[in-house]
Amino acid sequence: MNQSRENWGSRMGFIMAAAGSAVGLGNIWRFPYMAGANGGSAFILIYLVFVFIIGLSVMIAEFAVGRRTSLAAVGAYKHYSKRWTFAGVLGVVSAFFIMGFYPVVGGWALAYVFKSLTGLLSNAGAIGDVFGGFITNPIEPLAWMGVFLLMNVVIVAKGIAGGIEKAGKVLMPTLFVLLILIAVRSVTLPGAGAGLAFLFQPDFSEVTGQTFLAALGQAFFSLSLGMGCMITYGSYLSKEEKLPNNALIVTALDTGVALLAGIAIFPALFAFGMEPAAGPGLVFVVVPSIFAQMGGIGTLFAAIFFVALTVAALTSSVSLMEVVAAYLIDQKQMERKKAVYSTGFIMVITGILSSLSLGIMSGFTILGVGVFDFFDILTDKIFLAIGGMLLAIFVGWVVKKEDLEDELTNGGTLTFGLFNIWYNVVKYVIPVAVAVVAVLGIMDIAQ
Ligand code: PHE
Q1: CA-CA distance, 259 to 238, in Å (whole number)?
Q2: Does 3 score more than 50 pLDDT?
Q3: Alpha-carbon 72 to chain mean position
Q4: What is the pLDDT at residue 1?
Q5: Which of 106, 204, 228, 356 is spaced 20 to 30 A from 331 at the CA atom?
Q6: Ligand 1 atom with the shortest distance to the CA of 24
Q7: What is the ipTM of this complex?
Q8: Where are the transmembrane segments (predicted)?
Q9: Which pLDDT tens digit goes with each residue over 346-375?
Q10: What is the pTM of this model?
Q11: Which domains does the chain have, with CATH numbers?
């Protein structure tokens, strides 16, 4: 189709970039506090079912649409039907909204690398107050967010193979090794068993409609689905690659890291008698507190942990920025650098508003919540689920079945009738399941 289009440099490069997009703050910052706030094991079980039935199928569908059309989200929808352009645009809007709060947390992670090394851990009792003081400060977090966004702009401006792929290839394996190191330390602490029980012994007594919606939103968010990101990444993928295999690897890696983050955090948290439902500050307060009790080596562990968190955030936020940049490049014929600089500029502004909403601008609310929470809740609970449902309806009912079979099988066949199973899941099961979960969740919240 588009002969001069950029391509991933290698298979490994693609997997690392796609896994880099999926593995992010969603896994390490958000997954533990969502699991903690929703009762642990039961939430995790529901999450896993959603990931492997809905998430995996949607990811294959996004890859298929992207590669078939060689176009990013908006172009891909438009290619099949002008009436569906809105679904692609919704994805670009979602990317903007997620980038409204994501770089703020990315900036915190970066700041905590330096804070860990410069005395944060020496006064364990004050760690919670330091976090509260830091995120509500009108200047300091803005500076860190600025640095974080600058890193994004530099990587995305270099283009696909040059920037994003190279960064992913080095940074993702580093992250895996770091997390395993911390998880091993955590489970070997005395009293760690209670944390493992919290994670793995299902207790359904606290499950409500909201638990399901939270788990579904988390699944879409963590796998980077429902907003065209994987369509965009798939559009750069070579025709020889097998889509289902790639999707399975990315999904497994993403889930593995989330569980690993849980294993890194909860056993230690219980070992030290802390509260699992600590909320968004969980990682930033609990992890340093845990490490503070370990002496000098703890300082090193904490710094390493926040390097890993920053790295994970960066490989995800570049994919979000790429969705917006690719839209401007494909649809508005903008030159890459110009597209990236203007995108970055707007993101600085939304990021500033979002960061300040936790401090001096906390009085300013949209629909009853601050700017940061507004971006977060709107994307995670609403936009991504709608985006995922639209994609499933689009693929099931608009795209030709033969085209899909051709993409999924690379012109051959899949064993065990797997293609038909996938097709029916996408066409019938996902639209209905997402609608049911959304209705139940919203009714529950409204109660
Ligand atoms: N998956 C990323 C994470 O878990 C966030 C993300 C969402 C990235 C949507 C791209 C698209 O942090």
Answers
A1: 31
A2: no
A3: 18
A4: 44
A5: 106
A6: 12
A7: 0.98
A8: 12-31, 43-65, 86-114, 142-164, 176-200, 212-236, 248-270, 290-318, 339-362, 382-400, 421-443
A9: 999 999 999 999 988 888 888 778 899 899
A10: 0.92
A11: 11-446 (1.10.4160)
Does 107 contact ligand 1 (Cβ within 6 A)?
A: no
Q: Is 224 in the pocket of ligand 1 (CB under 6 A)?
A: yes
Contact residues for 375 (Cβ-Cβ < 8 A; gap 6+): 97, 98, 100, 101, 350, 354
Ligand 1: does its nearest atom lie under 6 Å from the Cβ of 320? yes
Task: Let me know if 123 is exposed, middle or buried by CB neighbors in 10 A (0-12, 13-18, 19+).
Answer: exposed
Instruction: Give the total residue count for the chain.
Output: 447
Is residue 301 exposed (0-12), middle (13-18) or buried (19+ Cβ within 10 Å)? buried
- Going by pLDDT thresholds of 50, 70 and 90, the confidence category of residue 174 is confident
pLDDT attached to residue 353: 95
Dump pLDDT digits (tens) for 234-286. Answer: 988 888 888 999 999 999 999 999 999 999 889 988 887 888 877 778 889 87
Closest residue by Cα to atom 9, ligand 1, is 224
Instruction: Tell me, using a 6 A CB cutoff, whether residue 218 lines ligand 1.
Output: no
| Ligand 1 centroid – CA 224 distance (Å) | 4
CA of 294 to the centre of ligand 1 (A): 32
> What are the DSSP calls for 147-175, one per residue?
HHHHHHHHHHHT-IIIIIIHHHHHHHHHH
